[in-house]
Amino acid sequence: MKRIMLTVAYDGTYYHGWQFQNNAKTIEGELNKALSRLLKTEIEVIGASRTDAGVHAMCNAAVFDTEAEIPPEKYAYALNQMLPLEIRIRKSQEVPADFHPRRTDTIKTYEYRIDCEEFADPLKSRYAYFTYVPLNEELMREAAAYLVGTHDFKSFCSINTTATTTVRTIFDIQVIREGVDIIIRITGNGFLYNMVRIIAGTLMDVGRGKYPPQMLERILEKKDRCAAGPTAPPNGLILKELHFPELDEFAK
Question: In this structure, are strands 56-66 and 237-243 parallel, antiparallel, or unpaired?
Fold first, then answer.
């Protein structure tokens, strides 16, 4: 028995998130369907990050077990012939039999892109949130610094979370001007339900002048979802990088 890991990229616009649902189209559901067809047996993958409806990814990870003799690196080629155009396997590889993508140390990087043009660019509409209100990225950058480190992020988490703890570590937050766009890049050891989108919505409130950057410290202290800003729309969010330190030795 081998455990195979797939690195999965997708446009989440027309999908109801990653996680399998009986009556909705999801990324996990499409992977299960394609693998089951390829291997002629029922396959259910285990995903690393359960992205929300409308969220995109360049590098989500999914593992499955199989006794098939297909070389690990060939799954990417076979599955890409079977999956919808919005989903592509960027890499397939063997990993240790006990590797679990949600039960190991992980470093994740998300990016939230904001279209700051005078009028919305229709070619960006799937992958960037448009705002006609000018944003001060310097204020956003100053506010973001308060979130770096290990904190209780309960204020930045959906009330519907099932997480046992709301403590997370953010290693770095950058607010980057790229042409007319602003990108919020966040790297951490894990993220709560809607956490990145709530951070993005809160930083945009700061950028619009709704409250000063130092308010972020008070929002953290309150541990109350009502204290933070709105949940930014999903279309601007992409899972950009995913790293599993446990696999570094296995790859050598």
Answer: parallel
Using the predicted structure, report yes or no on whether residue 205 has a pLDDT greater than 60: yes
For residues 63 and 47, give the distance between their C-alpha atoms in angstroms, rounded to a whole number: 7
Q: H helices of 81-233, where?
A: 137-144, 195-207, 215-222
CA gap 250, 244 in Å, rounded: 11
Strands (E), the chain: 2-10, 46-47, 56-66, 87-95, 107-115, 129-130, 149-152, 167-178, 181-188, 237-243
For residue 89, pLDDT over 80 is answered with yes
Task: Copy the structure tokens of residue 114.
Answer: 């904001």
Q: How far apart are CA 205 and CA 203, in angstroms?
A: 5
Catalytically active residues are 52
The predicted model scores a pTM of 0.94
Name which of 61-75, 82-96, 159-173 the model is least confident about.
159-173
